[in-house]
Amino acid sequence: MRRRDHESQVRVGRLITLFALPSWVVASLFLAVYVLLDFVSYIFPLAPFGITPWNPYTGLSFVAILLGGRRYLPLLFVGPLLADLFVRGMPVPLWIEALAVAVVGGGYAAATSFLLRPQLHFDPTISSLRDLFWLLMVAGASAALVACAYALVFAGGGLLPWEQFWPAVLHYWVGDTIGVFVVTPFLLSIFGAPRLPTPTVERAAQLASVCFALWVIFGFARASEFQFFYLLFLPIVWAAARAGLEGVSAALFITQAGLILALDWTDQPVADVAKFQLLMLILALTGLFLGVAISQQERSMARLRLHREALARAARLTSLSALTAELVHELNQPLTAIGNYARIVRDMIGSGEGLTSSALETAEKGVAQVEHASRLIGRFRDFVRTGESEVVPTSVSLFVAEAIQLARPLLENVNVKVTTSIPPNISRALVDRLQIEQVLLNLITNSVEAIASLPQPSGHIAIEVGFSQTPETMDIRLSDNGPGFDPDMLSTGATAFSTTKQDGMGLGLTLSRSIIEKLGGRITLANDAEGAVVTVTLPRELEAGHVI
Fold first, then answer.
1. Of 122, 163, 401, 417, which one has the fewest beta carbons inside 10 Å?
2. Does 177 fall in a domain?
């Protein structure tokens, strides 16, 4: 549960970045987009006062309050008023307009405030089926109440015939419900995505399949009525299966927009429009539940990979503890033997037998025990340092790419992007590949953990390779946009690479520096204007193939 809460906080931190702007800027943007959406969606009106089969501005209202908070609730009253004024010219008496605005604003203010209740634990990123259920249930119920009250206001004022009361309620409910079901997840995905989606052949094929399905549906609409509508399920299921909630929300938005354009272009009867929108409602529900289920499964798999890595590190530490006990036990014997042989040689020298063959043989036995103890310590050191040391000329691009790949699940989980800059003419580094990859992985991980502690939309780590101040070395510079090193940490360096997290991946400063210094390099720490900077200096291969 704690892990899920942390992930949700990171995603919500990205979502609310837009709302970090001044309130008047956010309010102005909201009202402008609200009126624009009302303008473009004002088609197939049941009456001249705004009952249409698709109301995307309702979905925008939910997004504004869920991300910006209750301080933007007054906008839910101002938006409908401005829309009626600029889009329809306010064709109703002022007292009816005031009641209608109060119904719309009050209804959705109550709905969004309910979702913001701390007891509900609603996640605006819709990270689980539970969150999706609450959004759909609250949106559907509030839209039904608003639709009934809205139609009642106009019917009671004599502007809507009572025989059209229930058709008006149905139209309004369908329009607002689809507005929330389609627009709200789409906008939340846009604001919360790690990056904007890049065009791919697969996405183009999905778009083409939506267009083809709409062409078939409306090309044979008169003869087949709604039989071909279910062709739209194919691209929606495809998008959900491949990209989860982010993909299916975009596919649903495009499908809904295409459906409205096709309905307008083919001049469908209003009754048929309502039927199409009810089918679209079923399509949206199917796609959203499937998309959230797949996204939730992908996040669970990513967490599982991280947990497996943590278990592997824990197992390694357990093995390290066992090896330490074994090392102490095994070192006891050669150290005892070395002490005995040294005393024998000392006694022989004291008795005048220091140059005899027996003394030399005893000394050789002592040397052998020293070498045996050295091998034991070397085996222990190699285990701690991820394996046997094999310093060979190694491509910098190769071990940097491998380290980034090892950190990929953690990078994607908290939306941190890694960029690299490696000169094509840089020579190879003289390193042990496994050891340097482990050090770089530790540095990347610590940067990711530091960035994740900040409420920012994304993070970046830059890895730059360049020539050092001396001709026989090169520098690998890692910088991030995190909080930077603590001044005490920079002065002491005692815990610069360690972590107190239970599932931390840190090697520790001593071991990291031991590995780099054993290779003939060094590590330096600093801060710049954006965050922390770690510079790893390594020996490099010269033209002659050796280090000066």
1. 163
2. yes
Question: Is 3 a domain residue?
Answer: yes
Q: How far apart are CA 63 and CA 180, in angstroms?
A: 9
Quote the tokens at residue 127: 């990270």
d(C-alpha 474, C-alpha 541), whole Å: 10
* Domain count of the fold of the chain: 3
Q: 304 in a domain, yes or no?
A: no
SS3 breakdown of the chain: % helix, strand, coil, rounded to 5? 70, 10, 25
Strand partners, 280: none
Phi, psi of 503 (to 5 degrees): -105, 30
**Residues 362 and 416 grouped into a single domain:** no
Residue span of the structural domain in which 449 resides: 392-539
- Give me the tens of pLDDT residue by residue for the chain, a chain 548 residues long: 434 444 444 444 444 556 667 888 889 999 999 999 999 888 888 777 778 888 999 999 999 999 888 999 999 999 999 999 998 888 888 999 999 999 999 999 999 999 999 999 898 888 889 999 999 999 999 999 999 999 999 999 888 899 989 988 998 999 999 999 999 999 888 776 555 567 789 889 999 999 998 888 887 755 556 678 888 999 999 999 988 888 899 999 999 999 888 888 887 776 677 788 888 899 999 999 999 999 888 878 877 777 777 666 665 665 566 556 656 655 665 677 777 777 787 777 777 765 677 777 777 777 777 776 676 676 566 655 554 557 889 899 989 988 887 677 678 777 889 999 999 888 899 988 777 887 887 788 788 888 888 877 678 999 999 988 888 899 999 999 888 887 776 766 544 444 433 343 334 555 667 778 878 888 888 888 888 899 999 998 875 444 43
Clarify whether residues 165 and 72 are in a common domain. yes
Q: Is residue 504 located within the same domain as residue 429?
A: yes
Which domain CATH number covers 524? 3.30.565.10
Q: Is 270 helix (H, G, I), strand (E, B) or coil?
A: helix
* Residue 427 token pair: 């020579």
Tokens of 8: 């949700």
By the 8 A CB rule, do 396 and 426 touch?
A: yes
Q: Are residues 356 and 424 both part of a single domain? A: no
Q: Please, what sign has the CA dihedral across residues 516, 517, 522, 525?
A: positive
User: Which among 295, 196, 192, 497 is positioned nearest to 303, based on CA atoms?
Assistant: 295
- 453 burial (CB, 10 Å; 0-12 / 13-18 / 19+) is middle
Distance CA 458, CA 313 (A): 27
Domain boundary among 180, 196, 212: 196
- pTM for the model stands at 0.60
Among the three residues 176, 196, 216, which one is the final residue of a domain in this structure?
196
Q: Is position 250 within any domain?
A: no
Same domain, 352 and 499: no
Going by C-alpha positions, the residue among 522, 534, 452, 521 that lies closest to residue 490 is 534
